């Protein structure tokens, strides 16, 4: 069936409506993409014409495919003769704040390059440095996907050069700012092709004044596209808040996780040390669990995610930064062991469940220490949350007593006891 014979669907744009190279269209069809998401439908007409873009869209809206399709089409339209292609000189750079996001971008890029012959290279911390350096030195790099820290290392050792860049992509700029990466990003951009000689696409879930100031520095006459989420919280996620004391949270969590309807669960806490303590407590109670935070080596994080996907781990304990990189289907429950201080993080957390048309459940614990976050969260999501006391079955005492810890303190490393003063 030709493009003109395809039935028109009101309010929807087909990828076949864009004048994309046949090899790219074949990859898009192979992935199963037919209709554009709103961010794709609004940005592609602009970016394919070569305009710089500032895009506001939440994670999971399809922005990754939007900027990758633009990048690949641009390379196909302006091919470089093979004898003029050199190692260490990428044509496209995609910067991401987290390793998980970088890996997802690279995976999507490889799928879209399935028939085009373009090479995708990923450089990020926590993975084999020598292997990444060898790829940069010895392979023609078309698309480079990187986290800022590791890219700075390779720029310093002159294993990569960005002065032949055609397209710069900065993803999750707000998270870059939150994580303190902006000085690194500025150093990287100073090494890039000047902004009037490249195309720049910048995406962010939110745009405060700091992000807008950076965007104006890094882009040239950029178009602005804003995609409001259809709902700030997933309509398929049933949200409940349990009013509990701080010392009751573990009891309620363990009893709830043991319910048969809990298949895959992600448990969020606000700090790394809280996550470490909680993961140890859950293991002690016999819950099949693992820790996912920024301090865990990347290879171990990937193995942990694989175990979670295949069901050999029932629950992940995660920080907000690590949680943004979790894209696993079939997550039945999200638990907020602590309410986040940032209302937007609440939305990102519960968005890990209720995906792809499935029903999800979000359970949040509000003690006297974190209940103050509730009004801001309710204001942000535009709805009142159901606050209730746990039922009696959730309050049954645990067989193994919880580890006593001083409030707000840190326990000694595993296996060591504090020395008694004489």
TrEMBL record:
Region (Disordered): 399-422
Gene Ontology MF terms in the entry: ATP binding; ATP hydrolysis activity; RNA binding; RNA helicase activity
CDD domains to which the protein is assigned, alphabetical: DEADc, SF2_C_DEAD
Family matches, as SUPFAM superfamilies: P-loop containing nucleoside triphosphate hydrolases
DEAD-box RNA helicase Q domain ranges (all copies): 13-41
Entry keyword annotation includes Secreted: no
Record domain Helicase ATP-binding: where: 44-225
One family name in Pfam for this protein: Helicase_C
GO terms for cellular component: cytosol
Domain of life, source organism: Bacteria
Biased composition (Basic residues): 407-422
Function comment: DEAD-box RNA helicase involved in RNA degradation. Has RNA-dependent ATPase activity and unwinds double-stranded RNA.
The protein's name: ATP-dependent RNA helicase RhlB
